[in-house]
């Protein structure tokens, strides 16, 4: 096969044509490692943080405030990640890494909330909640599987579950759209710099 540039040899296999260059492979591997380590760190925090202490002001007020603060912190983290994506030399890679951290963080916020609620109000769910049960319930709500083995019973548990359902749509739709838009803007900005 003759190519436009004699120095360029055609790829022997289709796989070679789509494989990133060695320098980018290192960046991808590092991003994947950071994402995996972040996930492990988040899970360790979830399982090791002392969520077992009772709330002094009552479960409704204390838990509601804790959830609101955690969701505001999550929004702040997403905002910082959006700025980092926009400024990154590799916005797609940075966005994938940000999403790999943001989604588990969002889910663990609700898992922690369900765990505390289950500990404070034994009747909040159809069964007692361990940390793993709370994470399992969070994932069944997020994926809309809804096996039915664990279900919210009290009004507080149902309200928090509805907040998670709405949050799921926001995280999947809005945050993903913002990340993708920021990637596109970063690529355009980078292309503009390279053409100068």
TrEMBL record:
<protein>
    <submittedName>
        <fullName>Transporter</fullName>
    </submittedName>
</protein>
<feature type="region of interest" description="Disordered">
    <location>
        <begin position="1"/>
        <end position="20"/>
    </location>
</feature>
<dbReference type="Pfam" id="PF07885">
    <property type="entry name" value="Ion_trans_2"/>
</dbReference>
<keyword id="KW-0472">Membrane</keyword>
<feature type="compositionally biased region" description="Basic and acidic residues">
    <location>
        <begin position="1"/>
        <end position="11"/>
    </location>
</feature>
<feature type="domain" description="Potassium channel">
    <location>
        <begin position="105"/>
        <end position="180"/>
    </location>
</feature>
<feature type="transmembrane region" description="Helical">
    <location>
        <begin position="61"/>
        <end position="80"/>
    </location>
</feature>
<dbReference type="InterPro" id="IPR013099">
    <property type="entry name" value="K_chnl_dom"/>
</dbReference>
<keyword id="KW-0812">Transmembrane</keyword>
<feature type="transmembrane region" description="Helical">
    <location>
        <begin position="135"/>
        <end position="154"/>
    </location>
</feature>
<feature type="transmembrane region" description="Helical">
    <location>
        <begin position="31"/>
        <end position="49"/>
    </location>
</feature>
<feature type="transmembrane region" description="Helical">
    <location>
        <begin position="92"/>
        <end position="115"/>
    </location>
</feature>
<keyword id="KW-1133">Transmembrane helix</keyword>
<feature type="transmembrane region" description="Helical">
    <location>
        <begin position="166"/>
        <end position="187"/>
    </location>
</feature>
């Amino acid at each position: 096969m003759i190519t436009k540039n004699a120095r360029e040899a055609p790829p022997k296999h289709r796989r070679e044509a789509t494989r990133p260059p060695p320098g980018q492979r290192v960046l991808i591997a590092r991003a994947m490692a950071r994402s995996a380590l972040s996930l492990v760190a988040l899970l360790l925090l979830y399982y090791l943080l002392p969520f077992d202490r009772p709330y002094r002001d009552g479960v409704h007020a204390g838990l509601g405030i804790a959830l609101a603060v955690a969701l505001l912190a999550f929004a702040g983290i997403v905002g910082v990640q959006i700025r980092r994506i926009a400024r990154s030399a590799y916005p797609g890679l940075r966005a994938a890494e940000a999403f790999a951290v943001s989604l588990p963080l969002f889910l663990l916020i609700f898992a922690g909330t369900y765990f505390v609620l289950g500990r404070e109000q034994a009747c909040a769910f159809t069964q007692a909640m361990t940390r793993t049960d709370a994470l399992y319930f969070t994932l069944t709500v997020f994926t809309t599987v809804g096996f039915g083995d664990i279900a919210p019973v009290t009004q507080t548990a149902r309200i928090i579950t509805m907040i998670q359902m709405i949050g799921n749509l926001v995280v999947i739709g809005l945050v993903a759209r913002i990340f993708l838009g920021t990637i596109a803007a970063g690529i355009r900005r980078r292309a503009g710099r390279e053409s100068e």
